[in-house]
Amino acid sequence: MSEPLLDVRDLHVRFPTRQGVFEAVRGVSFTLGRERLGIVGESGSGKSMTGRAILRLIRPPGQVEAARIALEGTDLQSLSERDMRKVRGQRISMVMQDPKFSLNPVMRVGDQLIEAYRLHRRGGRAAAHRAAVEMLEAVSIADPDRVMRAYPHEVSGGMGQRIMIAMMLIPDPRILIADEPTSALDVSVQRQVLTIMDDLVRDRGMGLIFISHDLNLVAEFCDRILIMYAGRVVETCEASRLHEARHPYTRGLLDALPRLDRPTDRLAVLRRDETWADAPSVGS
């Protein structure tokens, strides 16, 4: 069996508070191959913190501990901050929530794409410009030359999402972490952006971590799913078999979703059990 792209073991993220230490992520373990891995759960379940912790983006007073965080065999915890900056973007890229607002509002789109290319890959400005235009075309932007000259406020939300995806993929990373990248988009644009991401990930043989609260979307788009609750992974399953999930938390989330094929007068209310938060995380 080939080595996974990413191996995370017993990951913890803690924050000191006046009431004591709050554990945002508690003992999460999983591996990622050349696949689309979905991480789902309610707000506050630890999904985004997991993605940020992998890239060491949790700043003090936050604390990150793990038995292992390895990228193709390289222990990320042992790297210096200087070496870690080479990992971010070049080997692992992350599209944040509301990615359009991650763009610099006072720089033209083209200048930001060119900067991302030259930061991680060798080449002059002319080569960087060509690569930026090609990447905009790859994310289905019809008039890339015009967009290169535009400022972020001059593009639509859907186009801003695609620009950020292009910026994250231009260094040709091994892994893309997408944190709710389509949450602010309407359904038609959302599907278009997902198709673009899917095509790029498959063509490049990358691994994708897709963080979302939308169970149906993740079930349709991903290969495997981790379900998180209170900082722990309570269940893992194949995406195609999500509706066969057995954990009562996953069943509660599924039952709370409206379904066209099974209309009901009243949706079920998710009932939580205190023991779910204390049970050991499920490994993957």
Task: Give a quick summary of the entry.
This protein has 284 residues and is an alpha/beta fold. 35% of the residues lie in helices and 24% in strands.
Give the overall silhouette.
globular
The overall average pLDDT, rounded, is 88
Gyration radius from CA atoms, angstroms = 20 Å
How many E strands? 11
Order of helices and strands: EEEHEEEHEHHHHEHEHEEHH
- Largest sheet features: 6 strands, mixed
| Low-pLDDT residue intervals, each spanning 5 or more residues | none
- DSSP strand (E) fraction? 15-25%
In terms of structural class, how would the helical and strand content be classed?
Answer: alpha/beta
Taking strands numbered 1, 2, ... along the chain, how are they ordered across the largest sheet? 7-8-9-3-10-11
Number of helices: 10
Helix fraction bin: 25-40%
| CA distance, first residue to last residue | 15 Å
Describe this structure in words.
The chain has a domain at 97-172. 35% of the residues lie in helices and 24% in strands. The protein is built from ten helices and eleven strands. The strands form two sheets. The protein has a six-stranded mixed sheet with strand order 7-8-9-3-10-11, sandwiched between helices. A hairpin with a 2-residue loop joins β1 and β2 (20-32). The mean pLDDT is 88.
Annotation keywords:
six-stranded mixed sheet, 35% helix, 24% strand
What is the topological layout?
Layout: E1 6-17, E2 20-32, E3 36-40, H1 47-54, E4 63-65, E5 68-71, E6 74-75, H2 81-87, E7 92-95, H3 109-120, H4 125-138, H5 144-149, H6 157-169, E8 175-179, H7 187-204, E9 207-212, H8 215-221, E10 224-229, E11 232-238, H9 248-255, H10 274-278
Parallel strand pairs: 3-9, 3-10, 7-8, 8-9
Antiparallel strand pairs: 1-2, 1-4, 1-5, 5-6, 10-11
